[in-house]
């Protein structure tokens, strides 16, 4: 592994910070929408880390194409998953307007 | 006989009850005739095949059939003298019980299911008898549990469901413990064929602790079904099952499976030599003796006839274990022959108890007063069975106890003779009052629930014949014990083959 | 052959979206062809050894590479056959149970995701497969209608979170080593904090997705709420996907010290899953939830086997692990189909509904009991084979009495919850009357996998040989 410049460290630190914020939100947030957003923040943190890593230690300044391909794929997956989650959430609110509260077991 | 036949004969014996059983499951309730003929056809074929095998084994042939199963342990079916003893017992008694069950369950619901599981149960028992190694034995042992459970809960009442739960808890627990033991032994010596003289002798030195552990685990697993002392709790409760089921459980299938397993374990897995080297005989002997006395003692205070019989079973089956644990040839003859004798005697008693319950509604001991006049044939059969249990000549029971006593003297365990004497007294104390009430006391109250089951006989002929058949059988086995056809001479043949190696 | 196995379900799913009317038939068709192809592949691989292909002619490193070894082939065969069976069941019941039209394309996609997962040996491809699997599984759960949305959403969020953890681990590993292919990565593997952290992160994500204890909380609700054929697929196959990746990571990537260090975690969690999952299964009042909790418990066996394998490196444990996976898949499919059929016919979700089921629906009840026998590990079933291998391994290691005791306890617990149902079914006092005449075909379909799991025992030798060929 090549040495990390301070600038790189900063980016990595930011990515880690994003991840931590998202993680906090995911674990604490009681509302589903908040948790979906938190997942997106975690995703942003990871993608940022990958972007940073793509530039790591490559002398000519070119980015690692494999990582960029991965990020693209990951973004597509993340967007579709978020859309799906939001659709489910919308259906949930539709199904029981007004009385939205979590339940343990399916009703008898 | 061609070699092809020889190979498939053990499998055919199992299939002769398994296939009819599976077909019976698919039959409708109303197809009574077809079901009965299928059942009897299966019994007939099985008896025929067993006869074939009996003659061949007597001539010194061995049967062997194997399927690949686990690494180092194939599924092996093997017909040797010992397995044949059990196979003959279960096939003959299956015939009697089937006829009895047909009469007993006439007009009751869910008969297809009942007879289906009944056949499965016998198949599992026969498979267990023919099992050629421990893994195969384990397999049939578990199948037997599964096949008998629906029979125990057949009535579907709260009481029978509770008994069924208890039965399962005990037997499945025992099965798991047995599996642990078998796996341990398998990891030490694999699971070769059962061999007279055992196969662990070579590894005894250096593995004493593990072998002892394996033995203890397996005895605990088998002891559940054989109703050894702390593990007998399920047996008296399982009495809620219909009478033919109780008869089958007590005389042939379940408790005998445990006892038979102990015989196999002691003689054909560990062998006399290793048993001595590992000093395993003494604890087993103590346990069996304690069970004999405890069962008899508890039987004394039971007021329900079937429960009294159940405790008597606990006591009597341990005679087999005790005979085996003494490790002497004479005692072994006693134990082996008791396997057969106890089966025939106990099934007679259960048939009779069932007859009393079905015909007159008698369940309690005190209701028996004067039954001898109302149902003389059944009462006679019951008396014969009871005398056999006590060990009075010329019944079969006398023969086995005689040999057990001789065996105890032979291996110089004189305290066991005391145990036998005490237990004999207790047996008399709980059986003779029944006999006395039946014949010598006048009827003190009206029969609880009398039914007119037959115009010509005292009860339905299908209920009467099996009881008479087995009662005559147990008398014959006692009277003609010295002839070549008797279980005694067969047991001697087995013991001769078992002990010949040393 | 491998490409066919991937392309066919994909094309099938697209066609199903275009012509929803013929979707059921198309599903059956693709599943049949795929089953045959999987069998062919298995035969090829068992004769000629594992095969590898690079998609679309790209050079190694860039191309998506697929590798079929005997284990993968076995799992693919299992997937396609179960898919065929469940599709048949769904075909027989979809009108009655009002199964959404979405089921057909989604189940095809599920098959695609699983097949590609079994074939991938590249960390990022595995991620994509995982995501595909997770999304499709959630969509399938939500088919049940409004009451399933909440568990489905919960499942989705946790599944996404798990995937992200896994992805972060992948990113860290790629940053450190610059390769994604597992075998290439294993060559340059170093034991350091970074690789350990990455492994742990991925493990966390995968355990969450595989519902391994203590991260199993979402499973009973989701599997319980899904329609019966979906629950069968989810319990039998989907949770095994992440488990497979977990095994790949720890068996092929991790160095010996790392593996030994993680072993207690797996064995401990496995043990807890066995015992606590069993207790939960015993206590839940809902029929399908009971089966779902049983999945949690049974996954404990796989985890226990994995932990012991990592610790002792004894091939018997590897055999036990995969035998558990195979046996559990078949048995659980049978359980869910049987219970689903019974609850649908008798109307009701509670266990009490099953009262007297041995009279009203004997075949389905028999299927459940037979499958339950394998879950308990009664001989001669697949579950017994697996347990036997585990016991042999333990006795050979010697001095493992604690584990043996735990296995005994777990066995008894599973017996307790299986027979709780069976005893109820034998209750003759006022049995629950069926809402409509019980149908025979779905019951037979539930019985088939149950019989298959018992037949597994008779083919133990070829199975064990195949599993031993596998280097895992």
Q: Count all strands of chain C and give the number.
A: 2
Question: What's the CATH C level of chain A?
Answer: Mainly Alpha
Question: What name is given to the CATH topology of chain A?
Answer: Helix Hairpins
Helix content of chain A: over 70%
Percent of residues in helices of chain C: over 70%
Q: Please give the count of helices of chain C.
A: 20
Main beta sheet of chain A: none
Distance N terminus to C terminus of chain C? 23 Å
Which structural class best describes the helix and strand composition of chain A? mainly alpha
Got a strand count of chain A?
0
Write down the oligomeric state: heterotrimer
Principal-axes shape call of chain A = elongated
Beta-strand proportion of chain C: under 5%
Spatial order of the strands forming the largest sheet of chain C = 1-2
Sequence of secondary-structure elements of chain A: HHH
Write down the domain tally of chain C: 2
Total individual domains of chain A: 1
Q: Largest interface, per-chain counts?
A: A-C, 38 and 42 residues
Name its key features.
heterotrimer; A: 108 residues; mainly alpha; Helix Hairpins; 0% strand; elongated; C: 472 residues; two-stranded antiparallel sheet; 20 helices; 2% strand; globular; cell membrane (chain C)
List the helices and strands and how they pair.
The complex is a heterotrimer of chains A (108), B (502) and C (472).
Chain A: H1 6-28, H2 32-54, H3 65-95
Helix pairs in contact in A: 1-2, 2-3
Chain B: H1 3-25, H2 32-58, E1 63-70, E2 73-79, H3 81-104, H4 111-130, H5 134-152, H6 158-189, H7 208-225, H8 234-237, H9 243-252, H10 254-278, H11 281-300, H12 305-325, H13 329-360, H14 371-374, H15 376-390, H16 396-410, H17 414-440, H18 461-479, H19 487-499
Antiparallel strand pairs in B: 1-2
Chain C: H1 2-18, H2 23-48, E1 51-54, E2 65-68, H3 70-97, H4 103-119, H5 123-141, H6 146-177, H7 182-187, H8 193-209, H9 218-225, H10 228-238, H11 240-253, H12 256-283, H13 287-312, H14 315-346, H15 357-360, H16 362-376, H17 382-397, H18 401-425, H19 440-456, H20 460-469
Helix pairs in contact in C: 1-2, 1-4, 2-3, 2-4, 3-4, 3-10, 3-14, 3-19, 4-5, 5-6, 5-10, 6-8, 6-9, 8-11, 9-10, 9-13, 10-14, 12-13, 12-18, 13-14, 14-16, 14-17, 14-19, 14-20, 16-18, 16-19
């Amino acid at each position: 592994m090549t040495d990390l410049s301070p600038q790189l460290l900063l980016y990595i630190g930011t990515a880690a910070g994003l991840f931590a914020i998202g993680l906090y939100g995911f674990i604490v947030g009681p509302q589903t929408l908040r948790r979906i957003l938190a997942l997106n923040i975690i995703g942003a943190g990871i993608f940022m880390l990958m972007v940073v890593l793509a530039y790591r230690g490559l002398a000519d300044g070119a980015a690692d194409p494999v990582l960029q391909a991965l990020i693209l794929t990951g973004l597509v997956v993340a967007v579709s998953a978020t859309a799906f989650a939001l659709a489910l959430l919308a259906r949930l609110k539709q199904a029981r307007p007004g009385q939205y509260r979590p339940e343990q077991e399916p009703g008898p | 006989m061609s070699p092809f036949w020889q190979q498939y004969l053990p499998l055919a014996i199992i299939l002769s009850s398994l296939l009819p059983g599976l077909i019976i499951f698919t039959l409708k309730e109303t197809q009574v005739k077809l079901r009965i003929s299928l059942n009897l056809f299966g019994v007939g074929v099985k008896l025929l095949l067993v006869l074939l095998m009996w003659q061949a084994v007597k001539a010194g042939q061995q049967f062997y059939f194997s399927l690949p199963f686990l690494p180092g342990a194939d599924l092996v079916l093997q017909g040797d003298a010992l397995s044949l003893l059990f196979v003959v017992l279960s096939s003959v008694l299956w015939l009697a019980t089937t006829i009895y069950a047909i009469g007993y369950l006439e007009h009751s619901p869910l008969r297809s299911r009942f007879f289906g599981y009944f056949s499965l149960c016998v198949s599992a028992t026969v498979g267990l008898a023919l099992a050629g190694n421990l893994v195969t034995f384990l397999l049939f042992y578990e199948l037997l549990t599964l096949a008998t459970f629906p029979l125990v809960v057949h009535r579907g009442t709260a009481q029978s469901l509770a008994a069924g739960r208890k039965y399962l808890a005990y037997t499945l627990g025992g099965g798991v413990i047995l599996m642990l033991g078998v796996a341990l032994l398998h990891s030490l010596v694999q699971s070769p064929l059962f061999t007279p003289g055992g196969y662990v002798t070579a590894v005894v030195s250096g593995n004493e602790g593990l072998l002892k552990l394996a033995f203890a685990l397996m005895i605990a697993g088998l002891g559940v079904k054989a109703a050894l002392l702390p593990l007998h709790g399920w047996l008296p409760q399982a009495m809620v099952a219909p009478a033919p089921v109780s008869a089958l459980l007590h005389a042939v299938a379940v408790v005998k499976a445990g006892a038979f397993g102990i015989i196999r374990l002691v003689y054909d897995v560990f062998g006399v030599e290793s048993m001595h080297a590992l000093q395993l005989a003494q604890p087993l002997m103590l346990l069996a003796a304690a069970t004999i006395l405890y069962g008899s003692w508890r039987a004394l205070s039971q007021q329900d006839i079937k429960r009294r019989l159940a405790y008597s079973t606990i006591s009597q089956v341990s005679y087999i274990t005790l005979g085996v644990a003494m490790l002497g040839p004479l005692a072994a003859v006693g134990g082996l022959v008791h396997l057969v004798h106890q089966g025939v005697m106990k099934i007679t008693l259960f048939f009779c108890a069932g007859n009393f319950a079905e015909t007159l509604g008698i369940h309690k001991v005190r209701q028996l007063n004067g039954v001898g006049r109302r149902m003389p044939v059944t009462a006679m059969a019951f008396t014969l069975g009871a005398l056999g249990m006590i060990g009075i000549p010329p019944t079969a029971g006398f023969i086995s106890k005689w040999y057990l006593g001789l065996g105890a003297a032979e291996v110089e365990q004189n305290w066991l003779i005391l145990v036998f004497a005490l237990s004999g007294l207790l047996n008399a104390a709980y059986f003779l009052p029944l006999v006395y009430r039946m014949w010598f006391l006048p009827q003190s109250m009206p029969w609880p629930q009398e039914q007119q089951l037959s115009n010509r006989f005292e009860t339905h002929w299908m209920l009467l014949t099996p009881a008479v058949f087995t009662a005559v059988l147990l008398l014959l086995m006692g009277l003609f014990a010295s002839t070549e056809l008797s279980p005694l001479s067969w047991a001697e043949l087995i013991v001769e083959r078992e002990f010949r190696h040393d | 052959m491998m490409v066919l196995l991937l392309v066919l379900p994909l094309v099938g799913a697209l066609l199903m979206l275009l012509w929803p009317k013929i979707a059921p038939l198309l599903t059956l068709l693709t599943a049949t062809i795929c089953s045959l192809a999987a069998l062919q592949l298995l035969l090829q691989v068992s004769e000629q050894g594992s095969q590898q292909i690079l998609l679309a002619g790209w050079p190694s490193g860039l191309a998506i590479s697929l590798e079929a070894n005997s284990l993968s082939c076995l799992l693919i065969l299992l997937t396609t056959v179960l898919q065929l069976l469940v599709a048949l069941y769904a075909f027989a019941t979809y009108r009655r149970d009002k199964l959404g039209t979405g089921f057909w394309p989604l189940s095809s996609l599920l098959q695609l995701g699983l097949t590609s997962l079994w074939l991938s040996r590249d960390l990022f491809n595995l991620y994509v497969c995982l995501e595909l699997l997770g999304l499709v599984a959630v969509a399938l759960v939500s088919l049940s209608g409004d009451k399933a949305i909440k568990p489905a959403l919960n499942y989705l969020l946790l599944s996404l979170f798990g995937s992200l953890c896994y992805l972060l681990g992948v990113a860290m590993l790629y940053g450190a080593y610059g390769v994604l292919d597992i075998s290439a990565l294993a060559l340059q593997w170093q034991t350091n904090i970074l690789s350990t952290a990455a492994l742990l992160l991925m493990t966390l994500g995968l355990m969450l997705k595989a519902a391994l204890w203590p991260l199993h909380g979402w499973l009973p609700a989701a599997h319980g709420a899904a329609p019966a054929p979906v629950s069968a697929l989810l319990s039998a196959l989907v949770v095994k996907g992440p488990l497979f990746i977990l095994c790949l990571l720890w068996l092929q990537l991790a160095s010996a010290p790392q593996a030994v260090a993680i072993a207690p975690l797996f064995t401990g969690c496995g043990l807890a899953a066995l015992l606590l999952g069993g207790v939960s299964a015993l206590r839940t009042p809902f029929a399908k939830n009971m089966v779902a909790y049983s999945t949690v418990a049974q996954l404990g066996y796989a985890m226990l086997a994995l932990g012991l394998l990592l610790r002792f490196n004894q091939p018997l444990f590897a055999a036990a692990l995969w035998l558990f996976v195979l046996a559990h898949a078949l048995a659980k499919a049978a359980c869910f189909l049987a219970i689903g059929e019974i609850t649908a016919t008798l109307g009701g979700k509670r266990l009490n509904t099953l009262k007297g089921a041995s009279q009203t629906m004997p075949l389905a009840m028999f299927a459940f009991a037979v499958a339950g026998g394998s879950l308990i590990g009664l001989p001669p079933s697949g579950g017994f084979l697996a347990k036997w291998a585990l016991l042999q391994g333990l006795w050979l290691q010697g001095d493992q009495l604690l584990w043996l005791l735990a296995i005994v306890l777990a066995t008894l617990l599973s017996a307790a919850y299986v027979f709780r149902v069976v005893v109820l079914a034998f209750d003759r006092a006022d049995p629950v009357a069926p809402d409509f005449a019980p149908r025979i075909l779905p019951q037979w379909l539930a019985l088939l996998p149950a019989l298959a799991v018992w037949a597994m025992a008779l083919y133990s030798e070829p199975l064990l040989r195949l599993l031993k060929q596998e280097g895992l």
